[in-house]
Design goal:
CATH class: Mainly Alpha
Protein name: Metalloregulator ArsR/SmtB family transcription factor
Domain HTH arsR-type: 7-101
Number of domains: 1
Number of helices: 5
CATH architecture: Orthogonal Bundle
Order of helices and strands: HHHHEEH
Radius of gyration: 16 Å
Oligomer: single chain
Pfam family, one: HTH_5
InterPro entries: ArsR-like_HTH, HTH_ArsR_DNA-bd_dom, HTH_Metal-responsive_Reg, WH-like_DNA-bd_sf, WH_DNA-bd_sf
Number of strands: 2
CATH superfamily: Winged helix-like DNA-binding domain superfamily/Winged helix DNA-binding domain
CATH topology: Arc Repressor Mutant, subunit A
Length: 113
């Protein structure tokens, strides 16, 4: 069976980066929080109950993946989603209901084969 696809190597790489970003609960929390608009790292850290260092590392990862952008605002920096299509895509992903096999996947590692 041949699947018709319009996905390019660039599309595949972009989805892989999104998948990597979604593999960490803190990064997911950041992306979900930024759906509502821009935010400062300290506010994100407080709302997600993580240290400022953890937040800095995760925001750097998301910037590197091209999913968020940083805009200087005086002595602070605001972060926002890099593309307007990302917020509705995350909203759609939140609607997906997965059947989870008991004992298959933990928050740390997937043992499914």
């Amino acid at each position: 069976m041949v699947l018709a696809t319009t996905a390019s190597v660039t599309h595949t790489a972009a989805l892989a980066r999104l998948g990597f970003a979604l593999s960490d609960a803190t990064r997911v929390g950041i992306l979900l929080a930024l759906r509502a608009g821009s935010a400062y790292p300290s506010d994100l850290a407080d709302s997600l109950d993580v240290s400022r260092q953890v937040m800095s590392n995760q925001l750097a990862c998301l910037r590197g993946c091209g999913l968020v952008t940083a805009t200087p605002d005086g002595r602070r920096t605001q972060y926002r989603l890099a593309d307007a299509h990302l917020a509705p895509a995350l909203d759609e992903l939140l609607q997906v209901v997965l059947h989870v096999e008991p004992g298959c996947c933990s928050t740390d590692v997937c043992t499914c084969s």
